[in-house]
Amino acid sequence: MTVKKIESTKKLNFRVDYNRMTVYYTNMRYKDNSKKEAIYQATILLLNKDGFSATPMSKIAKHAGVSPSTIYVYFENKDDMLKKLYLDTKQKMGAKMFADTDGMDIKASLAKVIRNYIDYIRENKEAFLFLQQFTNSPYMSELDDQEANNYFTPMYQLVKRGRQEGVFKNVDDDVLFAYIEPPITEAAKRYFRGEFEFTDVRIKSLIELAWSAIKK
Amino acid sequence: MTVKKIESTKKLNFRVDYNRMTVYYTNMRYKDNSKKEAIYQATILLLNKDGFSATPMSKIAKHAGVSPSTIYVYFENKDDMLKKLYLDTKQKMGAKMFADTDGMDIKASLAKVIRNYIDYIRENKEAFLFLQQFTNSPYMSELDDQEANNYFTPMYQLVKRGRQEGVFKNVDDDVLFAYIEPPITEAAKRYFRGEFEFTDVRIKSLIELAWSAIKK
Amino acid sequence: MTVKKIESTKKLNFRVDYNRMTVYYTNMRYKDNSKKEAIYQATILLLNKDGFSATPMSKIAKHAGVSPSTIYVYFENKDDMLKKLYLDTKQKMGAKMFADTDGMDIKASLAKVIRNYIDYIRENKEAFLFLQQFTNSPYMSELDDQEANNYFTPMYQLVKRGRQEGVFKNVDDDVLFAYIEPPITEAAKRYFRGEFEFTDVRIKSLIELAWSAIKK
Amino acid sequence: MTVKKIESTKKLNFRVDYNRMTVYYTNMRYKDNSKKEAIYQATILLLNKDGFSATPMSKIAKHAGVSPSTIYVYFENKDDMLKKLYLDTKQKMGAKMFADTDGMDIKASLAKVIRNYIDYIRENKEAFLFLQQFTNSPYMSELDDQEANNYFTPMYQLVKRGRQEGVFKNVDDDVLFAYIEPPITEAAKRYFRGEFEFTDVRIKSLIELAWSAIKK
DNA sequence: CATGAATGAGTCTTCATTCAT
DNA sequence: GATGAATGAAGACTCATTCAT
Questions:
Q1: Which domains does chain D have, with CATH numbers?
Q2: Within window 88-107 on D, which residues have Cβ closer than 7 Å to strand F?
Q3: Through-space separation of residue C28 CA and nucleotide E2 C1' in angstroms
Q4: What is the pLDDT at residue C31?
Q5: Strand partners, A16
Q6: Is A11 on the interface with C (CB under 8 A)?
Q7: pTM for this model (two decimals)
């Protein structure tokens, strides 16, 4: 029956209404975005390490430094969280990928996209691997992919522009796409397996081969 | 003094050599290989439909028409089964991919490999998708990849030969590889999502772009 | 400006000190100790009735009136629970056994210990039988017995004192011990098998024979 | 479809009747006692090492060098085997314990029994520990103890004789018994835990204390 | 908003026993 | 008599989620 003092760090942040004997919260920004982010980071890390079937919510919570039930404050359920995480991650990747690619000619623009992509990969190992795992899992088909695809419209526009300018081979867009991103993605996977290095020379080669493939 | 065959009902199947007074068994395999195969097929199907985290052994057993415990007669545990399934599947794919590719010049040989690969993909949708999911999951890193890689030595030899003949760009093997298989794989994924058709024209295009990419 | 108690329904139970604006909790134990105790009782009962190999966690849970998973809130696993239960039980027995034995001469003190032990046995049939079963099982050797032994230091001290006073035969402590507790334990086993009664006469006899055995 | 030669060690031991085309066994002593013994030994060992709840039939079979189903040739089921093993073991112990104890006076006879018991213990560690574990488990109460008790009638006779000769204290038989065997058993347990040595001196002490306890 | 306890519904795996030879 | 394969039933344990505060 001991009385223990609670540390009053971040969590105790309320006022007491002496009259009504009820407790209010001072800080009205209820949903704490840093917690959400912590949950996302923990999920990505654990998913890459242990896979979908060995990543329980409780583990995620522990790594994120929150209670399991807190996750349910931010997300409806595990699937909901996973899908939102995917969309969030994919969107961030898209943003990086097409940054600063305007106002260049097609070839330079494409080279820039590839370099951006490689930069993103190198700076976001876990995010990249998570995207790969998710994309190749049946979770993907449950998703309304439209939203994810929107993040990549710049790529479609790029190809469209190239076609208009007559610099690409006369093949379907899908065929062109297949020789732009997938080879880089493959190289990245080898990179993270320790089998490949993104040296300047190799990056140039990758860009060169992509261009050779698609250019008329 | 001949060797007579004793009537056997189903599994016992031996002959007695009266001279030597020793017993030989024909077909020592008491374990029924068809059960193993049924387990494999069920696993692939369910894994593609529901993913790693929603494919319990009980479901696999039910689909395979065996008892859950029977799976453990053939495999140590779930992981063991998954890994053996992967290796088995990968090996079969490798065999198909490099069939009938000898005695051609490099370009034709490469085209044949691509066509073989596309044929395999179209005839083995589930196997292909399973390989993708597995490859992009953390299960992969638990695996001694050497064994899986052996199934693809013909590809390495092909590239090596091309390099000796001086027909490829002067870039690393890994860069070359990245423009041969990954684009096809990507197209296949779109194909199974219903976004792409493997028409003759498109297959030719894919081959053409691969060649454009890697040839000097 | 006093300290007022906020009405609590069941578990939350805190007071607010309006001056210091800090919150104290009374009774931090959110985990309900009565559940733990119920689990212990159920385990002992079932173990005595059915043995180690026929006492599943599910049965224990049912008898304790909790969910099987609740047991894992309190214990790491079955072994952990069993060991903690043993230690807990042994400690309680030790406490009873050596209660009110100070300030007597050796002979009286020893008689008191024996009487205490018999009292404990009669009042704690299930606990006693559980201890016997556990002690004679391989679980015992997995245990760091040191902790269990600590509960019996009074016995060692008693023997040590008797030796100093020169009232015991000149034999090893272990030999002395063997003629104090084991005969009582054996009688108790017969008692619970319905083959023996702890009458006053018999209790006196048991004490007398123990003393005859060890006294010089 | 390969033909494999089977090693013809111990198992192939039959004649072939060429006319009837059927196979007979030469060795007509069907139940192979050595197998039963091997099963017993394996069971005792594993039970002492792992306990009742962690000793599956399959493990016993493996240790005994037989197939699991072979155990069912000799015993109805696991319980049946365990009980027969207990009775068999207890009987063997009883036989050793009362060997060569005739024609001595009470005191010598009792000393001999104790020495026999200690000899048995030292030569049959595993059997002894198994008996302890079994005796203190609920398996015991399922047993018709009468059979087991019969092996110990010599002890009852000994006590009866002593009482007739007027050398024992005037207490119940059960009280006397309690100071004969249990102390030795306790010492034995300590012995196997490495806490006690059966030196000549200690054995003499044990006998001396037993006699002090029970003699008038 | 945040949380620790609690749990029902599963999950993987084991195992005593039977079956077919 | 002996056996390896097969399995139904059960066991320990997990986990997404909810509850009560």
A1: 31-74 (1.10.10.60), 87-214 (1.10.357.10)
A2: none
A3: 17
A4: 65
A5: A23
A6: no
A7: 0.86
